[in-house]
Amino acid sequence: ILLLMFFIWHGKDGEYIMEIAxxxxxxxxxxxxxxxxxxxxxxxxxxxxxxxxxxxxxxxKSVLAQMINALIxxxxxxxxxxxxxxxxxxxxxxxxxxxxxxxxxxxxxxQFFLPTVLKEVSFGITDFKENQRQKENLVxxxxxxxxxxxxxLKRNPFTLSSGEKRKVAIASILxxxxxxxxxxxxxxxxxxxxxxxxIKTIKxxxxxxxxTVFVISKDxxxxxxxxxxxxxxxxxxxxxxxxxxxxxTNKNLEDYGVKRPDIINFEMLALxxxxxxxxxxxxxxDLMKDVYRYVK
Length: 296
Fold this sequence. Notes:
Layout: H1 2-9, E1 20-29, E2 35-45, E3 50-54, H2 61-68, E4 76-81, E5 84-87, E6 90-91, H3 94-100, E7 101-104, H4 117-122, H5 132-145, H6 162-174, E8 180-184, H7 192-207, E9 212-216, H8 220-226, E10 229-234, E11 237-243, H9 244-248, H10 262-274, H11 284-295
Helix pairs in contact: 5-6, 6-7
C-alpha cells in the first residue's frame, strides 16, 4: 500500500507509454584520434518490453545504453524519449529524462557510497524525511521487489555477495520509480544460483511492475531467456534487430562476432541434420520435454 501511495504521489498510474527512438544517431570521438563509435543508428524500442543489446567488445553497446540516459550525447541525429529529445549535444528536458530512466552499472559497487543498505537505497528520497519509519517501510517493499528482505537494512552494501549487490543497485534505482531501467551485464561474474535469481528479478520488472528494460550483454543465452527484442551491434552499426528468435536463428549471426545461444544451436542442428522441428524454446527444461516427446 505504501509503495502504491508513493507511486501515486509521483503521478504514476502503472501504465507506461514511453517509446524510445534513435533517428540517424552517430557518435564520434576526436581524441586521441577521430573514431566513429556509433554510425547512423535507427532503432525504435517499444515500451513494456525487455530489450537486449549485444555485440562483440567495442561494438558500441555501452555507448548506446548511456545515450538512452543522456550520459553521452549524440554528435549527429536525435533520440526521442517520450516527449523529450536528445540531439547533437543538446537535451530538451534533462530532468525529465533522468527521472524516467535508471542505469545500473556492470559493477554495482561503483554506485555505492553509503554505509548501510537502508541509506543507500533511500538516498535522494525526500517524501519521507520527517518519518523514518515510513521511509524504512518503503525501502523494505522495494527490497522485496528484488528478492531481498528487511534483514538487509542495516547491512553494509560493500560486504554483500555479487548477486546481492546487483539487487541493492537495482533497488536504489527502483525507489525513484523510473519507467525505464538499463542493466549493463547484470549477471557477469555471478554463480548459477545468483544468476537465476537476477533473471527472475529482471523478468518481474516487466511482468509485475510494467517497466521497460534494457539488458546490455554479450551473454546471448541470458538474452534468449529474458528478452522480447534484440539488437546486434558490430563496429558501431546495427547489423541485426528484431524478435529474439529471428535474430538468434539468423545465418549471419556468428559472422558479427556474436555467439549463438546453446539452445538455438541444438534446435537448428536437430532441424538441419535430423529434420526434426523442435520449436524454439527459452529454457533447457522445455527443450528436454520436446526432445523426450520425439524420442518416444
